[in-house]
Structures are given as C-alpha cells and as structure tokens.
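Residues pack. One example:


***
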Amino acid sequence: MKILVMAFCNTTHQNGLLIAREMKTFGHDVEIKCLIREGAPHDYPLKPGSAKFRYELRMVEFVKQFKPDYIFVTSAGIESKEFFEKLAKVSNAKLVLWNADAYVPGTDKGYWNRYKGVFDLIITSVEGMVRVLQGYAKNIVFLPQYYDQTYYNSTIERLDPNCEIYDICFIGNSQRGRNIFRREESINILKDFCKVKVIGNISENSSDQCLYGIDMANVYCQSKITFDTPHIIQKEMGWKISDRIFKAMGCGCFFICPPMSGLYRFFIPGKHLVTYDGSIEDLKAKVKYYLEHEEEREQIAKNGQIEILKNHTITTRVIQYINAIKEIV
C-alpha cells in the first residue's frame, strides 16, 4: 500500500510523524510531506509566485510521481479544499483525514463546512463527532488516540527511589481566558496538601519546560498520580478523551479523570483508573485517598498500563487505521 502522510513537522511529537513511522513498520510504502503554516484557505486561488503557490506546485508534481493509493492528512485547516481535491485528482488517491480535535460545524469558523465532501474517510478521536459529521464524508470512524510505546519509553523504574518523587504531576496547559478546564484552580487546591509538579502554561504554576518523549515518560514514572479535568465540548457530545490518558497510563502513572464520553468502552473505573464526579472537591478527596493507599493505587496503575499496552498502543491503532482505510467505499 502506498501512503502519503501529510502533517506538520515542526516538532518530533507530531502525530503525523509518529503514525507514518509506525505505518512503515508494517511494510507500507510511506512518504511524509510537511504542511506549511502560511496563508489561509480563503486565500484561494493563490497568488502566482507566492510561497504557498510554489509549495502546491511541488506537491502536485510529487503526487503525480509517487502515485499514492491513499493521502493521509493529520492536520488540515491551513490548506484549501481545492488543494486536497487536486492531489486526489492527479493521483486517483483516496483522501483520509485524521482529526483529534472537536471542531463542531456551526461553531468552528467554517472548518468542517470548508471540507465537507472532500475526504473519503474521516477518523475522529472524539466519539460524539461521528454523529455530528454525518454527511461530511463518505465514511466516518471513531478511534481514540494512543500510546506510542517507542517515543514515550521511560528510562527509569516506576517511583524509582533514586529519583525525585512527586505526589501529583500535571503536564499541559490551562487554556487561560476560556476557563473550561479549571486546571489552575485544581492545581492550587492540590498544592495545599501534597507535592505537585507542573509542566506547562498554568499561570503562577507555569513551567517553561515542554516535555515530550522520554522526558515526559520519566516524569510520569516519578509521579504517584496524574489527573485530567472536565472538558465539555458540547452538552450532547459529552467529554472528550484526550491523549493524556493514553500517555500517562502507558507510562504506568495512576490516572484520575472525570467520566468522559467513550471512557467505559475501553476502561473499567476502579480497575484501570479512577473517576471523580468532575468537582474539585471530589478530585481532592480521591487524591487524598489514593496517596494514603499506596498498594491499591499502584495495582490500579499497573492494571491500567497493562490494558494500554495490550489494546491502545500506536501499533494497535495504526492497524485499525489501515483496516478503516481498506473499508473505504
């Protein structure tokens, strides 16, 4: 199978790069082409001689030569629908969009309306989007995100006594100004009674660090607990399962989260992870309990890691992507 993966390539943790790497391990002929963050989709038709114009000419010529069976796009929004349609036409390739975000038609500033009918398959990591996107592609499949056991492979043992140990870690951003996550408030309350390690943009708790790969995996291994907070996309769609759950649990960290949409299809609360009702009060109570009950906590963490490694690695997910691609009608 010949696959052209189109992705942003500015950092090594970009999903497109990781997915393409894994596709190659199955023997597929895979090429990666980087999307450029220049211009906007509504600039079409492009001004002759512009950087975007020259980029599209190069891409069309490459696709003519490579002749992929499938074009697997992991980032869209910058390119116009005409660009993707042109690539499909000159190569006779099927267009696939992998989308991890919850852009919703009518509130997404035209994102989905712009691409309606362009892609043969949309793979979404948000369960509720399957219903919302009916009619936007011929095929729509829900597959959650994954743990990359190669890229996020720790170099230390779980809670290694030779390393600094944290009661709680949080890696990510607070989305300040939108106040949808309550992450900053949660962290400040947890700091009152336990040792919290924060990496990311969380106001006065901010860290200048951006951890990925082994460094992120090691922090999760050094932390007794990590958590997520509610992120309600739309009331009828429920909460989104972020990739944090797969990375953290894959690294062996005990995970606490709200009862997110789709969660119970993959994990058993109390066995693989622990859920709280979404309030800071319940989060605080659960954290206190599991800091005090180490054996129970670590058994759940171990169960969660086993489940991730069995069913939710990037290897498993790419097999599912390929199977979904083969089912395109």
